[in-house]
Amino acid sequence: RRFAPTIDPLWSKDWQSLICTHEEATVIEAISWFLASSPAAAAIKSKTQMRNMALRALSSCYHDEAELICRHCRRKLCEECWQAACATRKEEFDSMSVVDKIQALQQALDISEWQARALIRNSIPATQRLYTFKPKEVPRKSSPVLRRAARGGLSAKDSEAAWQREIKSNKARQATWDRLTKPREPKAFAEIPYLPSMSSVVPHLQELEGADDVEEAVEKLKEQNKIKDWQAAALIRCAVPVFERLYTPAKATGG
Predict the structure, then answer these.
(1) Distance from CA of residue 46 to its chain's centroid?
(2) In whole angstroms, what is the distance from residue 165 CA to residue 102 CA?
(3) For the stretch 207-223, what's the b/e string if a residue is b when 16 or more beta carbons lie within 10 angstroms of its beta carbon?
(4) pTM of the full predicted structure?
(5) Do the beta carbons of residue 163 and residue 155 sit within 8 Å?
(6) Would you give the end-to-end CA distance of the chain in angstroms?
(7) Given pLDDT bands bounded at 50, 70 and 90, which one contains residue 1?
């Protein structure tokens, strides 16, 4: 049997449509809104004409079945658009403080505080929630050449020539300019050998290849104080092939 987890409707549905729902208004309320916006319409005596004018004055979702009137956004909506969140109530909810939002969600949806905080936090897009800082604009310092060109109305080329003439007219300034703008010469360093002063601690076995007896050659090296006892033992041990040293064949026993 395939495991199919169930997701609570609170997390799978637009929760704002659950709390910012539309509230149906009557035609009388629509007429009162029309009279408040158009006082001259009070002179109309026909109730049918007044009703039709009040309904036409309302904005709608532009669907043919738009007959429901919302008390908050004052729009005519169809059944499908009625299920969505009310824009006016959503704006009112967004303008509330975080504490008031949490309390409103807890009362309306019967959830705990951490669930309300999670819903509010995740309602903000990640790009806005994580990257809220604005980079500080660092004022850029223009070069003296460009500042002179801006003040004197000169081109950048003419201003640069005037700047060079002014530097050359003062020896101290010329010396400072040359010192700051002259490329540094690369310094020469002596080559450092890799792992200097590394030598072999124990004589290599190749030096003992010409000897008839390895043990005698090792003893001579000991007498010459070229190696120590532990080094001699290591040479004698390594002179035996590893397979002969580790896997000594068992001697055959006579029957």
Answers:
(1) 65
(2) 71
(3) ebeeeeebeebbeebee
(4) 0.41
(5) no
(6) 70
(7) very low
